[in-house]
Specification:
single chain, 7-stranded antiparallel sheet, two-stranded antiparallel ribbon, 3 helices, 9 strands
Length: 175
């Protein structure tokens, strides 16, 4: 079976999305080019991630906006979420969704923060930053390990969250 290239398939979706998720400088459709609010720029990033995940035909992708709890310090910030779920068989043999997110957002200048990266049996997490926004993605098909053997999972679950960081936290230390 030939692997599809979700990154190539996602490109048309990304080109028609609102610019808020990529540039995060000016709000699309705002008179006079006013700056986008924190929640608007985070929402643009979530729409971009949702478009990337929507390329996988078996995944159901939902987005929501609201307060996001920052796992680093427990504070709440305005932001958004993207939840993707579906049969793990629909993702098996494809470019993993987290790799598509990492690659495509990287092409638009997002930098990975490796302090928040992890991999486990069938799961992965990553964090990306750009222009004061912080996005994380955790996903995979949680595969149980029995007698040293990794068993195949039935469902893929992924969750992305994006929010604006306080000004003093912007950027990746040591990069």
């Amino acid at each position: 079976m030939k692997k599809r290239r979700p990154m190539v398939l996602a490109a048309p979706f990304l080109l028609v999305l609102s610019g808020a998720g990529f540039s995060q400088e000016r709000a699309a459709g705002h008179p006079g080019g006013e700056r986008a609010s924190a929640s608007e720029t985070a929402a643009g990033s979530c729409r971009t991630i949702a478009a990337i995940l929507s390329v996988y035909p078996t995944l159901e992708v939902r987005t929501s906006e609201g307060a996001i709890r920052d796992g680093r310090d427990g504070s709440e910030r305005p932001g958004c979420r993207v939840h993707a779920s579906g049969p793990a068989s629909g993702v098996a043999g494809e470019v993993p969704p987290e790799e598509s997110i990492r690659f495509l957002l990287g092409e638009f200048g997002w930098k990975e923060d490796f302090r928040h990266a992890a991999d486990g049996p069938g799961t992965s997490s990553l964090a990306l930053r750009r222009n004061g926004l912080f996005c994380t993605f955790r996903g995979g098909a949680r595969s149980p390990v029995e007698n040293g053997k990794i068993l195949a999972a039935d469902r893929y679950e992924g969750m992305a969250v994006c929010f604006s960081e306080p000004k003093e936290e912007k950027g990746c230390p040591g990069r």
